[in-house]
From TrEMBL:
Pfam families: Chal_sti_synt_C, FAE1_CUT1_RppA
SUPFAM superfamilies per the UniProt record, alphabetical: Thiolase-like
Origin superkingdom: Eukaryota
Official protein name in the record: Very-long-chain 3-oxoacyl-CoA synthase
Chain segments annotated as coiled-coil in the UniProt record: none
Gene Ontology molecular function terms on file: acyltransferase activity, transferring groups other than amino-acyl groups
Any GO CC annotation of this UniProt entry: membrane
Biological process per Gene Ontology, one example term: fatty acid biosynthetic process
CDD domains according to UniProt: CHS_like (cd00831)
Family matches, as InterPro entries: 3-ktacl-CoA_syn (IPR012392), Chalcone/stilbene_synt_C (IPR012328), FAE1_typ3_polyketide_synth (IPR013601), Thiolase-like (IPR016039)
Start and end residues of each FAE domain: 19-310
Signal peptide residues on this chain, from the entry's feature table: 1-18
Amino acid sequence: ATIFSLGWIAALWLLVTRKKKRTGVYIVDFACYKPDDKLKCSAELSEWFAKRLGVYTEKTMEFFKKVYLKSGVGDETYAPPAMFHHPNADLSWKQARAEAELVIFGAVDELLAKTGIKSKDIGILVVNSSCFNPTPSLSSMIVNHYKMGTDIRSFNLGGMGCSAGIIAIDLAKDLLGMHPNTYALVVSTENITHNLYLGNNRPMLVTNCLFRVGGAAILLSNHPCHSPGGAAAGKYELLHTVRIHNGGDDKAYGCITQEADSDGVLGITLTKHIMVAAADALKKNLTKLGPLVLPIGEQLHFAANVIARSVFKLDRKPYIPDFKLAFDHFLLHAGGRAVVDELEKSLRLGEEKMEACRMTLHRFGNTSSSCVWYELAYLEAKGRVRYGDRLWQLGVGSGFKCNSAVWRAIRDIDRPKSMNPWLDCIDEYPLEVP
């Protein structure tokens, strides 16, 4: 009995000491790149671009129109500068790198201006871009441009799809836990110039209709109120990250693939299995996330339902927990109207909870891993984030992966007066998307 008691005391001591040693991770601030108005790309202009390229058949052009009508993407999203070159678009590697520099430096410049820190104070850098990975890497490009220190811990994540932004946050979290008193800079983006598909294979054409120019830069710290450079108090505390990787399933693994078509033209193939793969990965993510965030009453209700169906073989529908009891704000991947509709249905969310997601898709299009940050910028521009609010970021993408990040606001977030991508149009939203 004495040994048993000592064992419990030792276990309790370990729990207490581990909790004390836990390093918190906080968002000091973030910035979303907003391109110049001259890069706005309406459906009509997109059609003109496509015709000018001279590679698409009439059937393909009709397919483009049909996808646009159902996409949820509006007429004020942004195309890369290369598409506006005259007399023909320039989709060269040089122009792809120029787009990357424009987006990344634009976001990081704004972030440094908002926080007042110096680039030399940043000790950790994590960059994610799925399909555009030049040499030197994008992370090295940032180190060179901002003349960062020789001891910076730099990471470049490639080929990890639209959910990679949360993977980058998770990696930065682990690094901040090991290196106290430092900043971590996370940059999430994708490249449109490099990834435009120039063929007529329908499963590879959808990405042309949905993806648009965008990127975000996030400054993290392991101190809640101030950081090494003396920056202002942070905004959000990271509570949880949950990652699911279904790459072991062949259909899930192959539902989003970068490959060449029968004519040797490179593009991204989207199969019909995407929605099934997404639903399965989401279910597994929620199974791990639920116990961390749901009230005990919801957990007991869910457990009772599982026992009734699996143990007692009762004919009952599976119980879907009400995640509205766990989160105040939902920042879900704006991958396209079909994806957004499915997330709303699966999670039993109403229009109000999906507002930031749908409006981001309409205003900026699918900006890949950075879209959840445009959604957070939307909430801040609306003045809706208050102290203690819990926010859920969800990313899904190739692999197949489904990743979650849960944040808690550590202060009221006032409506910004500058440096927010929504400031010139926020009063027009929400609007009805036809």
